[in-house]
Amino acid sequence: MIVLPPFPENLAGQALFLTEQEKRQLWEAAVLMADSRGALVRLTVIFGQQVEALKALVSQVGGKLGGETWRDLTQRAQEAVEDVLWNSYRYATFGLEAVPHFIRPRQPRKNVMHRLLTTVSGTASGFAGLPGAVIDIPFTTTTILRSIAEIARDFGEDLSSEDTRRACLEVLAFGVPGESEEEAETGYWAARLGASHLTINLLIRSAAGQFGLILSDKLVAQMVPMLGAVTGGLLNYSFTDYYQSMAKVHFCLRALEKRTGDAGAVKRSFEAMVQAARERRRIGRRRRRQRVPVLLPKAS
Question: 177-236 pLDDT, tens per residue?
Fold first, then answer.
């Protein structure tokens, strides 16, 4: 469980309809949302220019070196993810419902093992190149989906229900955060609203489109000479960590909405807490900058 900053005093009057434990859960979800960009966005920025340059190269010479496989990498990644999402939900949730409710954790697990597994898979696929991707894409997708399902179970969701299956797929459909902090929260609500109107078939296609695009960019980034294995491992770890965080946000909000019956009030309280969490980060950055000593040249 993350170490939370103190609950902001100016929000003492917020969310009076929640218990103290529920307030803490909502505050933790707000901190996760505020920090969701984190390492994943930093890595995306680092590899972004290389990925775009390599994509152009792949489109030019991919047909000569590897047939249509490299040229249509994005489409093939999306198709692979879609196949996994259609067929792996039952496997991803196998054994989770068997855990008795009374021995389940009071807080969602850290799910470290899932991050380690996808990291190993990404590293191995980086060494193996495109053949490794054939194994990495379904393995990573299924592992992340299982991690999402485990978080859903820990928040009290019934994994055998169609509604919970949709909710797990919605997490993958959220994509990754944009360039600004506000885009993460706006994108979450927009994606959630859009997904609520989709059939399960279209929802799977939407999730496959978002997640497949991310994986195809990752595969291109792994083509960087001598860094493919490191890149694959780092990106897989960051992807898994990001989707775990978004799953905790998503299922925390769903649990509070179901318990209170007032989704609007939960959303307003959550948005206020996210804003306070972002302000906390900005203040922290300003304080760190103020503590940096300024070295002046010595007088001659």
Answer: 655 666 677 778 888 888 888 888 899 988 888 888 788 777 777 766 556 788 888 888
Query: What's the CA gap between 14 and 127, in Å, rounded?
Result: 51
pTM: 0.81
Cα distances (Å, whole numbers) of residue 40 to 19, 180, 218, 222, 235: 33, 13, 11, 15, 7
By CB neighbour count within 10 A (0-12 exposed, 13-18 middle, 19+ buried), where does 194 fall? middle
- Burial of 115 by CB count in 10 Å (0-12 exposed, 13-18 middle, 19+ buried)? buried
pLDDT in tens, 114-164: 999 999 998 888 787 667 777 888 999 999 999 999 999 999 999 989 999
Q: Are 142 and 84 in contact (CB under 8 A)?
A: yes
Q: At what angle do helices 228-260 and 263-291 cross, to 10 degrees?
A: 140
Mean local confidence (pLDDT), 265-292: 76
Q: Do residues 249 and 106 lie in contact, with contact meaning Cβ atoms separated by under 8 Å?
A: no
Backbone angles phi, psi at 155, to 5 degrees: -90, 10
